[in-house]
Amino acid sequence: MIMSQVANRGLRDTRVLAAMAWTPREWFLAPHLARSAYDDGPLPIGSGQTISQPYIVALMTASLAPRRKDRILEIGTGSGYQTAILAHLAARVFTIERLPDLLVEAEERFRRLSFTNIETRLGDGAAGWPEAAPFDGILVTAAAPRVPEPLLAQLAPGGRLVIPIGDLASQELVVLQRTSRGIEERSAGSVRFVPLISRLAFAEEHR
User: Which residues are catalytic?
Assistant: First the structure.
């Protein structure tokens, strides 16, 4: 998976590749999907949510460029797979999920993998985690029509925010960095994510 789906597509960040090699992707799926864990595509995890294809996980992680001392905020815990990758690369990961069942399952996976540097919260991810801010990196695993202002406000100087921006049919993976000159923005390519459900993003009825 790492060679054919990630490295051969041009993503050669050795830390990201090592984290993906260390993390058993099948542990983050229902047992009947374990044989498909390393397929080149997203897979359902319940509650209308998905685990992103391996290449997209690698692309988002490499775009965030987490360092060993960083404090990272993740919006959308989902299965916990992306969280685990981040926890392998950063000092601390704060992750928010709005669906209780998914969060409980993810927390159990973190315990099985003996992660001690992950903090979880149930709630509206678009509002961020203000009492733990600022963050060196913020990664959003659901699409929003625009960047939620609370997330931008919680980004530390030099920090990066990676988020899919667009409508429900077409999105761009946007990378924003807070610099001495202000917020710099670039696109990391086209993506397709489930919507970020929040009063600051997509309403539930727009799904």
Answer: 52
